[in-house]
Specification:
Number of helices: 6
Largest sheet: 4 strands, antiparallel
Strand content: 15-25%
Strand order of the largest sheet: 1-2-4-3
Order of helices and strands: HHHEHEHEEH
Radius of gyration: 40 Å
Helix content: 25-40%
Number of strands: 4
Distance between the termini: 110 Å
Length: 164
Amino acid sequence: GVDVLALDVVHALDSGLDLILVRPHSSQAIAMVKGVSAGTPAKRSHKIRTSVHFHRPHTLRLARKPQYFRKAIKRVNKLDQYALIKYPLTTESAMQKIENHNTLVFLVDIRANKYQIESAVESMYDIKCQNINTLIRPDGKKKAYVRLTPDYEALDVASRIGVI
């Protein structure tokens, strides 16, 4: 009857068929077919706001694609390894550090940090650093105490670079 026909229409629509030729026998079946094909209006649910402040949503941020470069050439790093380390110190206290504490003493650029000093010393002198202490002298120059790992002798390295 009517219920079986309406259920067949609903089943056919759910299975994804686009065109259904059905002759409904009653007004109830016609209403059923129209309701299933048109769909019922969904009840909108509002998001529950948990804060009184509005935060702008994150949108797509594209990488810059300039039409032309604003500078002709890229900026050269002025603090390379040769500019970072000025020279090793050869004072008596520096010699004591070399002999007793396996530590080399350098005067370095005032803008250099410990990571830059470590990479510069390791690349220039082919040694490994255990730790680095820095201080700024009263005359405004920066001094770096570079302690070497036990694998390297500070005396050998100092004689190789010409300190001793």
